[in-house]
Design brief:
With 161 residues, this protein is mainly β. The chain is built from one helix and seven strands, in the order E-E-E-E-E-E-H-E. The protein has a seven-stranded parallel beta sheet with strand order 1-2-3-4-5-6-7, with no helix packed on it. Helix 1 links the parallel strand 6 and strand 7.
């Protein structure tokens, strides 16, 4: 495992390419908003933890890494899960808590190894949660309670005199 937590990184150091046997990369609490293309060449990498960074888009390079078993990108600004997430065929744990996710593709159901999907603290409707529960009956889903709120504004109108 390589620990790059709290290194103020904006990019992963190219020297990582030399670590051919690296299986676990911790890159949390940095300033990352992308991963370099060469990351896909790290075929022994199984787990990637990049929580608390600045990702807005799910890194496309990860879709070229079918050998990944764990991806954790909680507390970023991710707005969606790619439609072709199922290209990461070995994925067992996908942790995307505290993001801005607005779409949940049906291709999540095509991940044969998926055991845990952590979507806590993402704004989800009851329908989205029901769809995921039906789509992934054997997967441990970590979901926040959906809001079925009725708001009382406290505003009362008085007849004008």
């Amino acid at each position: 495992a390589l620990d790059l937590i709290r290194q103020r990184l904006k990019d992963l150091p190219p020297d990582l390419m030399l670590l051919e046997d690296l299986t676990y990369l911790l890159a949390s609490r940095n300033r990352l908003d992308h991963f370099p293309d060469w990351l896909a060449d790290m075929t022994d990498l199984q787990a990637l933890v990049a929580d608390h960074n600045r990702f807005r888009d799910f890194p496309e390079v990860l879709l070229r890494m079918p050998h990944l078993t764990q991806i954790s990108m909680g507390d970023n600004e991710l707005q969606g899960i790619p439609l072709d997430i199922d290209l990461i065929t070995g994925l067992e744990v996908l942790s995307l808590w505290s993001n801005l996710l607005a779409s949940f593709p049906a291709s999540l159901g095509n991940l044969p190894q998926l055991q845990i999907l952590d979507l806590l603290h993402n704004e989800m409707t009851v329908d989205e949660q029901n769809m995921l529960t039906a789509l992934l009956p054997d997967v441990q889903l970590n979901l926040s309670e959906p809001c079925n709120c009725e708001f009382d504004t406290g505003f009362q109108s008085y007849p004008s005199e």
